[in-house]
Specification:
Layout: H1 17-28, H2 48-62, H3 73-85, H4 91-99, H5 105-114, H6 117-131, H7 141-156, H8 161-169, H9 181-184, H10 190-202, H11 221-228, E1 234-238, E2 245-249, E3 255-256, E4 263-264, H12 283-291, H13 299-312, H14 332-344, H15 349-357, E5 384-385, H16 388-400, H17 405-409, H18 412-424, H19 438-446, H20 448-454, H21 460-465, H22 472-484, H23 490-500, H24 509-521, E6 528-529
Antiparallel strand pairs: 1-2, 3-4, 5-6
Helix pairs in contact: 1-14, 2-14, 3-5, 5-15, 6-7, 8-12, 10-11, 13-14, 13-15, 16-18, 16-20, 22-23, 22-24
Length: about 525
Amino acid sequence: MANRFASSTPLSARASITSFALAILTATGAMAQSSQVGVPQDSDLAIPSVMIDRLLDQKLESESQTPVGQSNDAEFCRRLWLDLAGVAPPVWELRSFLADESDDKRSRLIDRLLHSPRFADHMATRYTNSLLPGDVESVPQPDVEALQRWLRQAFLENKPYDHLVGAFLTAGGGTDTGPAIFYTSREADPIKVASATSRLFLGIGIDCAQCHDHPFADWNQNDFWSFAAFFSQLELGENAMPNNRVVEDRIGKELTLMDTDQIIHPRYLGSDEPPEPDPENLRRRQLTIWLASRSNPYFATAAVNRVWAHLFGRGLVNPIDEIDSIEHASHPQLLRYLSAYLIEERFDLRKVYRAIANTRAYQRTSRFDGLRPPQNSYAIMHPKTLSPEQYFDSLRQNIIRRLDPVLSETGMIDLQRQRFVQRMRDRGATPMDYPHGVVQALGMINGPEMMLATTDSSSGIIAAIEAPFLDDRQRIEALFLASLSRPPTEAESKRFLDYLTDDSINASKPQRWGDLIWVLANSAESFVCP
């Protein structure tokens, strides 16, 4: 079978990204207008964010679309904190950012968050949710926590992405309580593991070809089973530790085609050649070496497409696990460029995040004039629905905070977080959807989280705004900064002030503050990353 990505990703030895970028633009004639105001010159294209914007602008120009303006500082700060730290900005951080008048404050904030423990925490949560099977509730909680700890440390160390994935594919042994969960949560079943590996690390959904040739893509049944054969040696053994199963490889164990005695030999996806021999005949190691090699055209492409989907809510190829051909991308040249950039930077994901977050496209506003925003376009930033973890952690950090020590010491608040996440998660939803139905909405409105946020005995924000040196207008501003990461409009401030001073309402002042927090925390705006 011919390589479906032939010549789509530059995989030759350490090609210059700048030369590659210029080659793309020269081939398309984009440099013909380089003397115009606002169009980058050749020297600027060495900056990845400039190159990304140029490739996006080409498409917008060809479709006669005019981009919206830049986000304001409050909108950008909330977006970046939620995307990179997994939580809305603390009020003091937001105030400091808004007061900063330096020209480079956005790029400095990007760098600071990318190197912060919060980024590692957020990435560990995202990857844990992706790596575990759909019925994650069936995985023992200690196993989930062990995986999350391992991932957090990997992102703190900025482990190269190829090394991170390699650790999962070669996981095993009695001391592995992290990456091996990728196998144990799937019962070390070669079929389940092959399907997950192709989707997560290659961006290819080949599981449809398990029983028959793929109905829509160019994958056949032999492709699926030959790939699954890399995991034929998997076995689960018993460890001395109770309830801890060990991932092992049994040399000589083969995979047979479904309902037959035909032995299937391993073969890389998109290749007709047999794998390179391994000294100990460890098939998972063979696959790992190929996965991050320059002869594999899928790995880097799937990685950068996943980063893009994280920051924009959808991939350049969408869904992100259906990259059957790079030509299906909304911007094929951009996907090629990002893939080459990741390889050039030795699979440093932080650098890809930094490049994209510094673009004009990422920093555009999500506000628009008219009935509907441009659809499936990078002329505007489309809001993303918060994950349950993002919402709960923002609520706990900025609104609740003043918790009973007993709750914290006994882990009750963490248990409450787990229950909230389970109640609100819809694993089939994308960040561009709002998946919650009536039952979930009612659970949010009347749930224990909202009780903690709006009761003066547990609400940290109510305690904070009771400071005598604040007037009610300043207190209202603090509520908006804590809940929505922005100051109120004049109309909003007046409406809230009217409620606080309405003599017809039979409620104490702390109760009224709780009511206003309830309104903000349940507003549509509080559930989105702008």
